[in-house]
């Protein structure tokens, strides 16, 4: 069997790996896989630079995700299958947690609060992030009627207002969710992004009752010790997330990967086979035939490839909105941050009208990332709520972030930036984050239905099945299973 995988990001690479693993498990001949990547590197939005300055100091800089979740288990399971799980780093036990901006202060997220579900009532009743009336409103959650059975989706904003109250949404949930999805909570779909919590209302009638049940069964043991994110359930690679991409590429076989090679069109052939029209920087134009084709490109590229095959699939795919973001990465002398938080990072509520969405301290999470006297700060800007910032130049964005970090963590504003940093970098991700808005699952179903008649053609993209590393890998495994069924 000859299989083409179009796109060398996480979706494409993990699909290739799962195909090979599944073939081995089923004692089938290994398929011939050819992976096409239009750019000169693999990994898509996952990339790492290891930089050494003139003084021999080394910094490991992730351009996108710097760790992955072990729950759901798809990513850690794949690490175990590939024999690399024992190499993984756990986040430092010191500093696990996050903070929320309030004015020029950073206030800890209440212990046991994860996304939109409090698992420790005491911490919620003492947090300065909520007023007395908001705390009383929170206590009423168990008495709020569950949604009508006819309601199949709802925005995150609507759900949290209804169950937890406006203030809890504005001061805690909105910044946490925006930090993950760079999204507008009043457009983001509960059913598509927060299904486990969405289902708790269905099964238990309230989040409080669901939480009590989970505490009794021990399911919330990790959540009760967390603040904002369950850091115990995250892992990273010693040399950054590019090490994961390299592992997947090595298992795929470098000889099967074609960099700088763009697939320009997909042409159906008799017997459910496909011809790819390909353009390579080295070999020029060519055509190749395959039994199975997996499209794992960004959504806009996938839509163009699918247009001649299914207008419905292409147009629906184009209707999924995307957000752009930029990350300013600084390696800052520790002594030049007067109020460095002890936690892994912070998020900023939209109501604060600041120009940063969030910040994280990569070298606090993973001390191996930088020398002890430096801190790697990553600040996020843009997203759905402030796209205009991305029209600014890199230097302007750096100035914006520097000013904001001065307010929030006491970053030195008196010295030239080059005197207090070993490196500064702006990483832009344009149209990289799909927005799972209300009704997203209906769009996904329309796309899948439209492509169902095209046997041997598979669409695997983060615009459909999940934006995190683990969901992407899980979707890739399902694609591999369909191919080798």
From TrEMBL:
The processes (GO biological process) annotated in the record are: heme biosynthetic process
Tell me its cofactors.
Answer: FAD
Task: List, alphabetically, the InterPro entries matched.
Answer: Amino_oxidase, FAD/NAD-bd_sf, Protoporphyrinogen_oxidase, Zeta_carotene_desat/Oxidored
Q: Give the reactions, separated by semicolons, that this protein catalyses.
A: coproporphyrinogen III + 3 O2 = coproporphyrin III + 3 H2O2
Which keywords label this protein?
Cytoplasm, FAD, Flavoprotein, Heme biosynthesis, Oxidoreductase, Transit peptide
Family the UniProt entry places it in:
Belongs to the protoporphyrinogen/coproporphyrinogen oxidase family. Coproporphyrinogen III oxidase subfamily.
- Name of the molecule in the record: Coproporphyrinogen III oxidase
Q: Which Pfam families does this entry report, sorted A to Z?
A: Amino_oxidase
Its main subcellular localisation, reduced to a broad class, is cytoplasm
Its biological purpose is as follows: Involved in coproporphyrin-dependent heme b biosynthesis. Catalyzes the oxidation of coproporphyrinogen III to coproporphyrin III.
> What GO terms are given for molecular function?
oxygen-dependent protoporphyrinogen oxidase activity
Protein's UniProt keywords contain Electron transport? no
Q: Where is the Amine oxidase domain?
A: 10-484
- Is Oxidoreductase tagged as a keyword? yes
One Gene Ontology cellular component: cytoplasm
UniProt-annotated location(s): Cytoplasm
- Top-level division of the source organism's lineage: Bacteria
Report the EC code(s) recorded for this entry.
1.3.3.15
**Pathway recorded for this protein:** Porphyrin-containing compound metabolism; protoheme biosynthesis
Q: Which SUPFAM superfamilies match?
A: FAD-linked reductases, C-terminal domain (SSF54373), FAD/NAD(P)-binding domain (SSF51905)
């Amino acid at each position: 069997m000859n299989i083409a995988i179009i796109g060398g990001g996480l979706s494409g690479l993990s699909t290739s790996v799962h195909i090979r693993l599944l073939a081995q498990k089923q004692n089938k001949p290994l398929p011939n896989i050819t992976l096409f990547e239009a750019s000169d590197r693999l990994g898509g939005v996952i990339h790492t630079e290891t930089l050494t300055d003139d003084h021999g100091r080394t910094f490991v800089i992730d351009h996108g995700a710097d760790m992955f979740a072990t729950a759901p288990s798809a990513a850690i399971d794949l690490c175990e299958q590939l024999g690399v799980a024992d190499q993984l780093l756990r986040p430092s036990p010191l500093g696990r947690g996050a903070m929320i901006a309030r004015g020029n202060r950073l206030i800890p997220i209440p212990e046991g609060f994860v996304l939109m579900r409090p698992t420790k009532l005491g911490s919620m009743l003492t947090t300065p992030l909520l007023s007395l009336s908001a705390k009383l409103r929170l206590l009423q959650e168990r008495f709020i009627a569950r949604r009508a059975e006819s309601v199949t989706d709802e925005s995150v904003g609507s759900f949290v207002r209804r169950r937890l109250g406006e203030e809890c949404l504005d001061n805690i949930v909105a910044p946490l969710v925006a930090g993950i999805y760079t999204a507008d909570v009043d457009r983001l779909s509960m059913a598509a992004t927060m299904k486990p919590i969405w289902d708790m209302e269905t099964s238990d009638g309230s989040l409080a009752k669901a939480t009590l049940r989970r505490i009794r069964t021990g399911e919330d043991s990790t959540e009760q010790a967390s603040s904002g994110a369950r850091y115990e359930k995250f892992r990273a690679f010693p040399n950054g997330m590019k090490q994961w991409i390299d592992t997947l590429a090595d298992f795929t076989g470098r000889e099967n990967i074609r960099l700088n090679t763009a697939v320009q069109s997909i042409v159906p052939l008799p017997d459910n086979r496909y011809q790819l029209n390909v353009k390579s920087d080295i070999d020029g134009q060519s055509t190749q035939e395959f039994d199975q084709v997996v499209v794992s490109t960004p959504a806009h590229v996938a839509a163009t490839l699918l247009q001649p095959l299914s207008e419905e699939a292409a147009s629906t795919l184009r209707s999924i909105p995307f957000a752009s973001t930029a990350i300013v990465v600084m390696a800052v002398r520790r002594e030049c941050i007067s109020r460095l938080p002890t936690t892994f990072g912070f998020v900023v509520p939209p109501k604060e009208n600041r120009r940063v969405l969030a910040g994280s301290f990569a070298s606090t999470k993973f001390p191996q990332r930088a020398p002890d006297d430096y801190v790697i700060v990553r600040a996020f800007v843009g997203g759905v709520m402030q796209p205009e910032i991305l029209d600014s130049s890199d230097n302007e964005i750096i100035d914006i972030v520097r000013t904001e970090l001065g307010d929030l963590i006491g970053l030195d504003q008196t010295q030239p930036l080059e005197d207090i940093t070993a490196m500064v970098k702006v990483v832009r991700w344009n149209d990289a984050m799909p927005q799972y808005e209300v009704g997203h699952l209906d769009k996904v179903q329309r796309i899948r239905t439209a492509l169902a008649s095209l046997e041997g053609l598979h669409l695997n993209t983060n615009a459909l099945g999940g934006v995190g590393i683990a969901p992407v890998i899980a979707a890739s495994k399902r694609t591999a299973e369909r191919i080798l069924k």
